[in-house]
Specification:
Radius of gyration: 18 Å
Number of domains: 2
Shape: globular
Order of helices and strands: EHEHEHEHEHHEHHEHEHEHE
CATH architecture of the largest domain: 3-Layer(aba) Sandwich
Strand content: 15-25%
CATH class of the largest domain: Alpha Beta
Strand order of the largest sheet: 4-3-1-2-9-10
Number of helices: 11
Largest sheet: 6 strands, parallel
């Protein structure tokens, strides 16, 4: 595998762009091929079997683009399908859960950690599992926030209804005296300002996207795949539906211009 090959990144929609943004910042010499499964989101309410099937299809698509590594920039897919596809495909594949859990365990002072995520992520208990392995003394309180993903996908980031839902979802966790809150879905960092207004300054917010980019860099070094030439990156973006809508959103948050986004019939993979 050439070190100049691109990195594949995927999510159920636009949320994985928070991971892409961190990769572009931390590893600027790398080229990214991104796929957003916008036709089939949200993943959080779907079964493990369905999410695993979707994940396999997307990994096959990215492998057809000759990627050198893959980032599952989706907490639900990381929880349900990461270990399966790691065993099935001959390319380094990382998720977003383990890096986020590690930094949360290091951040907490009182051992009380809140996790917000999709129904699938919270139901899987994967954050509890990783956090307990890192520090058996911590107590983890999970809360599913099923409306956050559709609100973000519809661009309602600063809308009063989003603030109201955040207050309902997160208010319960604050009562547990948490000092750390994991944004356990890659869509959620886009709601960081809203969430901060709810929790105040006393609760640390953990963004797994930042830690995932750091982990990716380590993986590339370990496999001798880090690009040793800083060239102009030719990033490519694909979705399963709504290419123009996705492109507008991507251009509002990424540090580079997304000139084109292409639709892909992911069912063919």
């Amino acid at each position: 595998m050439s070190s100049k090959a691109p990195i594949g990144v995927f999510d159920s929609g636009v949320g994985g762009l928070t991971v892409v943004k961190e990769i572009m910042h931390q590893i600027p010499g790398e080229t990214i091929i991104y796929f957003g499964d916008t036709a089939r989101l949200p993943y959080g309410s779907k079964s493990k079997e369905t999410v695993t099937t979707y994940t396999r299809q997307i990994v096959r698509f990215l492998m057809a683009k000759d990627v050198k590594a893959i980032v599952i920039a989706c907490n639900t897919a990381s929880a349900f399908a990461l270990e399966t596809v790691k065993a099935e495909f001959d390319v380094p594949i990382i998720g977003v859960v383990k890096p986020g859990a590690a930094v949360a365990a290091d951040t907490t002072k009182n051992g009380m950690i809140g996790v917000i995520g999709t129904e699938g992520t919270i139901r899987s208990g994967i954050y509890n599992e990783f956090l307990s392995l890192t520090n058996p003394q911590v107590k983890v309180y999970g809360k599913a926030c099923p409306l956050f993903v559709p609100l973000v996908e519809e661009g309602l980031i600063d809308d009063p209804i989003t603030m109201e839902m955040a207050r309902r979802y997160i208010g319960e966790l604050i009562e547990y005296d948490i000092d750390t809150l994991v944004l356990g879905c890659t869509h959620y960092p886009l709601l960081r300002k809203t969430i901060r207004k709810i929790v105040g300054d006393q609760i640390a917010l953990v963004n797994p996207a930042y830690e995932t980019a750091k982990s990716l860099k380590q993986v590339l070094v370990e496999h001798a795949l880090e690009n040793d030439e800083v060239l102009k990156s030719d990033h490519k973006f694909f979705v399963s539906d709504g290419a123009e809508k996705f492109k507008r959103f991507a251009n509002s948050i990424l540090p580079c211009e997304v000139v084109e986004t292409k639709d892909v019939n992911i069912e063919n993979y």
